[in-house]
Amino acid sequence: MSSIQLHGKTFDTYLSEAEIQQQVKRIAGELSRDYKEKRPLFIAILNGSFMFAADLFKHLTIDAEISFIKLASYKGMKSSGNVITAIGLEMDLFGRDVVIVEDIVDTGKTLHQFLPKLEHQQPKSMKIASLLHKPEALQYPLQIDYLGFSIPDKFVVGYGLDYDGLGRNYKDIYQLALGF
Ligand code: IMP
Asked: Which of 52, 41, 39 is nearest to 102 (CA)?
């Protein structure tokens, strides 16, 4: 097992690039099957989902669109409690089949607050694709329709996910080491 250091904390390898890519391809396959002829609109939540969204999108074999929205609800390792929309959505969702792309669903608060705003635009359907989910941390009712991995309630970085701005560039996912 290899480790990385970010802001003086140690993180150990948790999910390898190969394991991640295998799940990304599986999800892309399921989406390509479920959304055939529907020209879905993917909405990726920045910043954390940028790698997952890019890899997922590359493996789709159907016509699809993608747009990005930036929300912030996290500072350091604790949720700040506020969801702020920094970059708005320019696409019209009315009558569209929408797939939300998230890096990780932790407490579920971000999506719980954000989804009603999208539903207001009356999309035809709305599903959630998330690479990671921490079931033990979930505090808001939320159904994840396409999921890569269920993981324990421990802080992770890499593959787009950060710890105070660092760690997004790694191809593997790392977990905060015990005792740190
Ligand atoms: P939620 O609103 O609690 O579900 O948090 C969702 C957001 O918190 C994610 O999109 C991430 O940006 C961030 N987040 C939650 N857990 C982690 C983690 O373990 N590592 C890095 N970011 C995380």
From this structure: 52
Q: Which of 114, 178, 135, 154 is nearest to 15 (CA)?
A: 154
Q: Is 79 contained in some domain?
A: yes
- Is the pTM higher than 0.90? yes
**Is residue 169 assigned to a domain?**
yes
Chain segment 80-110, per-residue pLDDT in tens = 556 555 467 778 999 999 999 999 999 998 8
Work out how many domains the chain is built from and give that number: 1
Which of 47, 49, 103 for a ligand 1 pocket mutation test, highest count of atoms within 8 Å of Cβ?
A: 103
Residues with CB under 6 A from ligand 1: 48, 73-74, 79, 102-110, 155-157, 161
Residue 106 catalytic? yes
Whether 93 maps to a domain, the answer reads yes
In-domain check, residue 2: no
Report DSSP state, residue 55.
H
